[in-house]
Amino acid sequence: MSLTLSANTVVVLDFETTGLSPNQGDRAIEIGAVKLENGVIVDRFQKLMNPGFRVSSFIANYTGITNAMLAEADDCATVMHNFANFIQGCNLVAHNASFDQRFLDAELDVIQRDYDGTFACSLLVSRRLTQDAPSHKLGELVAYHQIDNDGVFHRALADAEVTASLWQVLLDTLQSDYSITNPDFSLMQKIAKMPKGSIDQFLKKQG
Question: How far, in Å, CA of 128 to CA of 110, rounded?
């Protein structure tokens, strides 16, 4: 499957996990994702996954995902095989993407699967395109941009859906402020890495 290069045709994903680092033995316990085509959600993916050990009370309280729920879930390998199929041919977006990429890479490494897309981070792009936002945490950006939501955070599909809405807001900002329509995914990656003070001049040259 050939990779789509447009920034508005992507998979937006979010993991819930047992902790912060797969290098310390933490595992994914839920994956949620939405597939965007030309800015419209055309497919969704949501699965709990059993990490093979009990999650802490802190994680259960933080996510609302209990050990009883995970006991009924498929194991990580089964879920991640299905998810690897879901993301083929797509670039990937996440909020604080380095976190989600670490877990995606670790879980796919276990099952010897790979993906052909690359990541962009909505948090880093937001820091550069909406510099007047008081915070770039997902929940606070949802409030700042008045993005419709059901009030659920720290569940994977709900977070993926509002991140997709935020991503669309960022793409709309490029169009309204700089007359950049249908940007390439690679432009979003460049924006994420650019010094904040250079963004305005750079984007004025792109429009």
Answer: 35
Give tens-digit pLDDT for 36-84.
Answer: 999 999 999 999 999 999 999 999 999 999 999 999 999 999 999 999 9
* Global confidence as pTM: 0.96
Q: Which residues pair with 12 in a beta bridge?
A: 34, 93
CA 56 to chain centre: 24
DSSP 107: H
3-state SS class at 16? strand
| 98-127: pLDDT as tens digits | 999 999 999 999 999 999 999 999 999 999
Q: Which of 12, 18, 32 is nearest to 65 (CA)?
A: 18
Alpha-carbon gap, residue 124 to 152, rounded angstroms: 23
Helices (DSSP H) in the chain: which residue ranges?
57-63, 67-71, 76-87, 97-110, 122-129, 138-144, 156-178, 185-193, 199-206
Quick one: three-class SS letters along 32-61?
EEEEEECCEEEEEEEEECECCCCCCHHHHH
Taking CA atoms, 69 is separated from 30, 47, 103, 128, in Å, by 11, 11, 21, 39
* CA nearest to 48, candidates 32, 29, 25: 29
Burial class of residue 125, CB neighbours in 10 A (0-12, 13-18, 19+) = buried
Residue with tokens 């509002």: 162
